[in-house]
Design a protein that fits this description.
Number of strands: 11
Shape: rod-shaped
Bound molecules: 2-phosphoglycolic acid
Helix content: 40-55%
Radius of gyration: 31 Å
CATH architecture of the largest domain: 3-Layer(aba) Sandwich
Order of helices and strands: HHHEEHEHEHEEEHEHEHEEH
CATH superfamily of the largest domain: Periplasmic binding protein-like II
Oligomer: single chain
Distance between the termini: 65 Å
Number of domains: 3
Number of helices: 10
Structural class: alpha/beta
Strand content: 15-25%
Largest sheet: 7 strands, mixed
């Protein structure tokens, strides 16, 4: 069955008016042009869509059934066209952002600032650890991802936008809380609370310790940054976390940062998307917004 969208439009108009003449007027076509479109459509379907009794035309049974489909198809076309129109404007459209859990400590503010400038944008935020974030990118679910350094084997376009220093934290009553220039050898007896497997923070910490030839001791494995921080506060051990996650606790002195030689481990945050993905204007606007916000945050005195 070879029918065109134009034929469906003509058919729908004739069916609505039950008149070739009025359909022709509405569509700014001649009456023979309308008849021709319907004839071609009927011959490619192999069934008549209309029947004439006296001076009136009626839909046949096939025409009735076809009308339901024609309207559905046209509704979908309209929805598609509306969505494309939205996506063409910078201040509308949808934005799907996936972020690593550690990014959540500053990304919500970033998204709130962006939403204030672009009130028509509908934002959905997906927060997960690095490993699940990578599988979401692989499935092409988010428009953009905010994450640690992307792996080379997943084809991503990425740009770094901000520092991500990893520091060692302890509870304020830890024996090393006030010590200066602590070496990793000084931490030989210490125990570490660590993030779940799949966390980028954990991968970076383990890479650093192994490069330094430091076999750290694990006291407990906990899911997510909040659990790790609470574990450290409760005295379960030390932890390596992103400085972004503990700004409040350090200010309130519920946790302290240890002065360890060679730390912080300096990482960067990246904004990334799949190579070949066509970013919508909204997604591109957000990508630029993130990079500019990162640059402002790195300015001296900020
Ligand atoms: P995560 O952070 O530890 O929450 O997975 C991502 C990363 O540091 O790459």
């Amino acid at each position: 069955m070879h029918i065109t969208i134009r034929q469906l439009q003509v058919f729908e108009a004739v069916a609505r008016h039950l008149s070739f003449t009025r359909a022709a007027e509405e569509l700014h076509l001649t009456q023979p042009a309308v008849s021709m479109q319907i004839k071609q459509m009927e011959s490619s379907i192999g069934l008549p869509m209309f029947e004439q009794i006296g001076k009136k035309i009626y839909l046949t049974q096939a025409g009735d059934a076809m009308l339901v489909h024609a309207r559905t198809i046209m509704r979908h076309l309209e929805a598609a066209s509306e969505e494309m129109n939205d996506l063409r404007g910078e201040d509308s459209g949808r934005l799907r952002v996936a972020i690593a859990s550690t990014v959540n400590y500053f990304a919500t503010q970033l998204l709130a600032d962006f939403a204030k400038e672009n009130p028509a944008v509908e934002i959905s935020l997906d927060v997960t650890n690095r490993e699940s974030l990578l599988s979401r990118l692989e499935a092409n679910l988010p428009d953009l991802a905010l994450m640690g350094k992307p792996p080379a084997d997943l084809d991503l376009v990425s740009e770094s936008f901000m520092d991500n220093p990893l520091i060692v934290i302890a509870s304020p009553d830890h024996p090393l809380a006030n010590a200066r220039r602590i070496t990793l050898a000084d931490l030989a007896e210490a125990h570490f609370v660590v993030r779940e497997p799949g966390s980028g923070t954990r991968v970076a910490m383990e890479r650093f310790f192994s490069e330094q030839g430091f076999p750290y001791q694990k006291s407990m494995e906990l899911m997510g940054n909040e659990a790790v921080k609470q574990g450290v506060e409760a005295g379960l051990g030390l932890a390596v976390v992103s400085a972004h996650t503990v700004e409040k606790e350090l200010t309130l002195q519920r946790l302290v940062q240890l002065d360890v030689d060679g730390m912080p481990i300096m990482r960067r945050w990246y904004v990334a998307y799949r190579k070949g993905k066509r970013l919508s204007p909204t997604a591109e606007a957000f990508r630029r917004f993130v990079i500019e916000a990162g640059a402002r945050r790195s300015e001296p005195g900020s």
